Task: structure prediction
Amino acid sequence: MGLSFITPLLLGGAALVAVPLVLHLIMRRKPVPYDFPALRFLRERAVANRRRLRFSHILLLLLRMAALALFALALARPVLRGAGWLVDGEGPVAAVFVFDTAPRMTLREANQTRLERAGSMARVLFGKLPAGSKVAVLDTSGGAATFSPTVAAAAARIDRLAAATPANSLPGVIAEARRLLAAAELARKELYVFTDCSHGAWDNAAPQPEAAAGEPTVLFIDVGGSAPQNFAIDAIDLSGERVSAGTALAVTASASRVGPEATRSVAVEVLGGDGTYVRRGVKPVTWTPTAPVQIDFDVAGLEPGTRQGRVIVEGADDLEADDIRYFTVEVGSAARVIVAAQRPATRAANFLVQAIAPQSLMKSGKARFEPQVVDVESLDTVSWDTAEGMVLLDPPPLPPQTWESLERWVAGGRGLVIWLGPRAGSADRFNSAASRRVLGGDIVRVWRSKEGNFLAPTSLDHPILAAFRRVGDAVPWQDFPVMRHWEFVPSAEPQGDGNAATAAVVASYRNGLPAVVEHRLGGGTVVLVTTPVSQAAADPDAWNTLATGFEPWPFLILATETLLHAIDTSDDRNVLAGSAAVLHLDRRDVPAAVVSTPAGDDFPAAVDQKRGTITVTATQVPGNYVIRAGGEVGGVAKGFSVNLAPSATDFSRVPAADLATVLGPGHRLARTEDELVRDVNIERIGSELFPWVIVLAALAMAADWIVANRFYAPREGVDAGQGAAATFAEEAAPADRVVPPPVPPVATASPTSPPPVPPRSGPPPVPPMPQVQG
Result:
């Protein structure tokens, strides 16, 4: 903050403050002293009057000097710079404009989107930029962080801004802008951030640093809506990403409303062979702002192959980006699964087989899996090539060559589920280097708990547990106690050739030890459950009642979902925008594939012929993507769907207190163009203090007038001339001299006039006694 003057030469007028002082000294009168009789009260009164008059004169002197000084200061027109959010700013500046271009910025209010509002505010700032300024425009969709060659080029860049999937968070782009400004050559640096102040932009963001000396100064421009209205489909849940032919696909949509209660229909559509969407169901929905809405659809009659669809809100909306959710499923025959158990294998595998492939569904051809039950000792004699998954029920310690075969088989894109039990023997016999590479860790010991232990998942976010979200906390895990289970310890580092990741705990028991563990191995997945489901209900040494308790529907879901996850996670059929999608083409003889985007564009993508997979990273646009390889005849057709992350469409405002914390101490936030222009003018031109200084000068003159009138006012019984003379005489009289009070005039008597009236108060006049001053 600094002070300067528009006309500094006029400050010379401040020398006029000496005029009252000179006049005060020149005009002092030296009255003639008189000796009075020894009247004590007169002497004391003279001393008191002299002190009062001296203070009055000093006060008058200071007020007049202050008035002249303030007048001179006002004529010089002082300007206070740095009173706002910038430093001194009359020369060129290095300015960076940061825009949040997430899809939520397309929220329309007053016939203007939030991004259009930000552009109009930015043009106001462009008109305030000094000549020679350097400007850069950054946004959350990505792009190079460089200064534009001209201000006009930067303005054109703003005109081309469009909402897109964020490649970087808003705080991340702000950090890039700070680094760009730090490398700028211009001394003065400005940073403008256009934001809707929403949870989607600022959740989990660290507070912005306070501007220090030499660092860019920041102005946040709030372009959020004041009273938005919106219909939104927040998410969709599928009964599975793989559906058997003839089985209906269950689609559940979660929707929410911002604004007053309204009625709007929601529809589910399936993409046809001609590229158009065919409506398969529609339901009217009453939307309330107080609670989310759940809409359920059953889509039957899906043809085999990759099938794609969408759930859509009918009608116009202020934010269209969250009105559609896309999905992709694979429809086909039941997946062949090998189930290996101890002899007699059919009896040991009975609970699991009935859970994953009920007899009724097997007869109707609607089962998801086609289980093949074998003895675990005969596992090596069965062909694994056509099997998509394998389940090992209470396996014994396996030879290293069997573990190595399982490792290669799983890494090729298959799924393996292991339910550990008493046949594992001891940890020393079961654990080996080969088993550690497959499982991602080691078993340690058997934990025993007679009562009080059961599965207790802390979260339902994992795909294996997603099916339990519909009932949430209502899953009666406590009704299916686990008396014994293995303690499993994941490896600290990845095992194998580097393609394997460390094992991750999916769910735990009440005692905190792992119950379900997932381990990615190459292109496949291993799921480990640390307690078995192969023991009969009458077995006194049974480790749990998961499969034998009363109505064990949680076990049915858990058995199905673990196997589905193991054999399904090799393909990313439904991903979030910006995430890579990896799909298996089951073809190693094609070098490339063609990817068709929702916008109708095609681009080639290389195929990893070693693994037979294709990886697509250009997934910024939400919608359904199609992949084709090997030609129209005998080729492969796959697909995947891309949806926006919840934060991309979350425009709900951050509370003022939380926003102040995240924007940092001393932040500046402008909401209107008037506030924007005011702040820029304060910093670029400075805050001119002339009105304030001239007011102070007027106040000083008014104070001088009041004090002077009170000081020179005539006393009671004394005319104005004598009062003034007496005032000067009293001021100048020495302390040991008494100045007589003024003698009132005596009227001349006449025959017709009344006798003179004596004064109403005061002592009688005393004639002066001349004396030569020694």
About this structure: The chain is about 25% helix and 25% strand. Residues 40-75 form the longest helix (36 residues). Residues 83-89, 723-739, 746-753, 769-774 have pLDDT under 50 and may be disordered. The longest strand covers residues 277-287.
